[in-house]
From TrEMBL:
UniProt record similarity statement: Belongs to the ThiG family.
GO molecular function terms attached to this record: thiazole synthase activity
Subunit relationships: Homotetramer. Forms heterodimers with either ThiH or ThiS.
UniProt name for this protein: Thiazole synthase
One GO process term, biological-process aspect: thiamine diphosphate biosynthetic process
Annotated organism of origin: Yoonia vestfoldensis
Pathway: Cofactor biosynthesis; thiamine diphosphate biosynthesis
Catalytic EC class: transferase
Signal peptide: none
Gene3D superfamilies: Aldolase class I
Thiazole synthase ThiG domain mapped to chain residues: 5-246
Amino acid sequence: MRDFYGIELKTPMMLGTARYPSPAVMEAAFHSSGASVATVSLRREQGAGQAFWDMVRGLGVHLLPNTAGCHSSREAITTAQMAREYFQTDWIKLEVIGNADTLQPDPFGLLDAAEVLCADGFKVFPYTTEDQVLAARLIDAGCRVLMPWGAPIGSGMGLNSIYGLRTLRAAFPDVAMVIDAGLGLPSHAAQAMELGFDAILLNTAVAEADNPAAMARAFAMAAQAGALAAASGPMGMRDMAVPSTPLVGKAWL
Ligand SMILES: CC(=O)[C@@H](O)[C@H](O)COP(=O)(O)O
């Protein structure tokens, strides 16, 4: 696995901390998934009690504050600065939303904020699309991790653009990449890892499952299987059939 600003994660699982039916259910999902990273929102901090944050800190995972809900670079920069102070980390998952329906990132605001935050010493994890030009600009700005979307947040659609994600992965082989958002089933996680991505970040599919802890475990197992497959040299696809049983010894009538 590629490193994340010098940190090697124990597992390729990153989990969000929203939408769970209770803090206890969320804690169980983290434990059963073996997640290495928890995304946390400063906005949520304003509404959650101290007990919730004590529990999150007690999970023993890396905290990745986000700028969820920000619609301008200025708002995201201010939120990131507050989050650094509150959560005592220079990691920031940078979200600048450009479309209220799809929650698609605003590429212009994202790049603007990434340039400012990287120059200010942040380790920026930008929530982006599969756009290669934007990816190159984000890397130029100092981002060493990219978080392309699989599909719109909360949609559960999986990987909407296999071609775009595959070519993005191939274009920047040294950059750690996390598929963030839109995963609905463990098979989507396996597919992301099979494509060579380094980790997955999800929230809704686990939090809204009937049994979040079991679903979190299923995602973790699928991600592990996908990573093992990627490292094992998958066969190439062919247009034509090739018999898997040798013809030698066949009775010719
Ligand atoms: C949790 C987070 O920071 C977001 O990236 C997002 O909520 C994840 O997307 P899904 O909820 O679609 O998994």
